[in-house]
Amino acid sequence: MATQPSLGAEAPISHTVSREDYEYVWPLPPRRRPPLKDYSAESLREYLATAPLDEVDIADPMYWETDTHWTFFKRLRDEAPVHFTGVNANRHRGYWSVTRWADIMAVDTNHQIFSSDAHLGGITLFDMDQDFIMPMFIAMDQPKHDVQRKAVNPIVSGSNLQAFEALIRSRTQEVLDGLPRGEEFDWVDRVSIELTSRMLATLFDFPQEHRRKLTWWSDIATADPEVPGNLQKEERQAALLGMLQEFMGLWNDRVNDPEPKGDLISMLAHNPATRNMPPMEFMGNLVLLIVGGNDTTRNSITGGLKFLNDNPAEYAKLRANHGLIEPMVSEIIRYQTPLAHMRRTALEDTILGGQHIAKGDKVVMWYASGNRDERAIENPDAFIIDRPRARQHMSFGFGIHRCVGNRLAELQLKILWEEILARFDNIEVVSEPERVPSAFVKGYKSLMVRIPA
Ligand code: HEM
Description:
This protein is an alpha+beta fold. Helix content is about 45%, strand content about 10%. The protein has helices spanning about 40-50, 60-65, 70-80, 100-110, 145-150, 160-175, 185-205, 210-220, 235-255, 265-270, 280-310, 310-320, 325-335, 365-370, 405-425, and strands spanning about 80-85, 95-100, 115, 185, 340-345, 350, 355, 360-365, 430, 435, 445, 450. It has a 5-stranded mixed beta sheet with strand order 1-2-8-5-3. Strands 4-12-9 form a 3-stranded antiparallel beta sheet. A two-stranded antiparallel ribbon has the order 6-7. Protoporphyrin IX containing FE binds next to α11 and α15.
């Protein structure tokens, strides 16, 4: 494995509780899931409609790759809204699924009890590798979280967003004008990845010609190592260390500037709260910002086109009234829910939805389910572009970790749809998308489309 480049003195990493307090062994039987190829989406749907709730590990990537998880979440919301999965979940050492809107809110807004700390496993169902901890402010508790969040917040201030608008628009125009007519192409590659990687390179002032590296790092940082074809642990760690090395060069360029510039690296290198970060913490925050600015917006760009094709009456409504773009953007983000879950670790025994949660338990807030909770959202399974109170969704989370980049993501999507409607009467989806096998990043590998000649 590559050695870590040095970035100032190693500072002690602060965290509220020691790992030992939380170590426990769950006596789980071996996993019983047959390999993905043995299942069709149809058979999985049938299975999930009737299988005993305790038997199913809904975090299994096969349910996300096949988009078959919906009925099971409805069953959980109705029958067992705070539910422990132990059997078959041994790779996650057992976890609580929280599936109703109100219970998810209760967890997300109670950071005193529900911790995000990387040393307890962090914010995804997968525990962060304890021999390769990447502290990042999304996986920190107070007070350090707030201090670091404030260091990068200016990148998405109102005035910065205004300044970005013209650039986002001209790039969007360029990308859309370069699309082929009358032939099939992959929307994910040509549009979703292209636009988000260009944006991210701007945020970091990273060389535009190497922007696809950002997509690659983002994808490997979130990939499920058990899915065939994904990088194994050591390969993944080596790739992330390579990323660190490359960003160290940018850091070293900027740290000696007399004044901070407007990009994220410069902000981190000059802010007293972050300028002495240990290398692993710099890497952690890079991963956070790269994944935050990349996968999520990318999958909303793809999802939007798919949803409009699946709902031609909504597409017609949009063509007739471009004023619906703004509420539609929020509806796309709700309907897609690009991050299917965030996870917390209980810092003390507590009661949630009538269930006893023990100190150290993993608690998973399934935003993908909360966004379809009939108790909070009317007709939640329908995609309705002029939905009243469209911004009432949980895709950006709530509480102290609520998404930093939400306004930027909305702006990118709004401009994209304005520019699409200005040039194309129709973009046809020609086949079912290929989906990402992950219970965390809920998205698409490819979506084949055609713009009529
Ligand atoms: C946090 C979703 C776009 C940067 C989050 C969280 C979610 C989320 C669910 C965690 C919330 C919680 O734990 O309560 C999304 C979605 C996006 C998006 C759905 C697009 C549609 C972006 C963009 C950026 C970004 C464009 C960067 C420019 C961040 C950061 C955090 C975060 C830095 C950590 C905030 C903290 O811990 O205080 N996002 N995000 N996100 N997001 Fe986003």
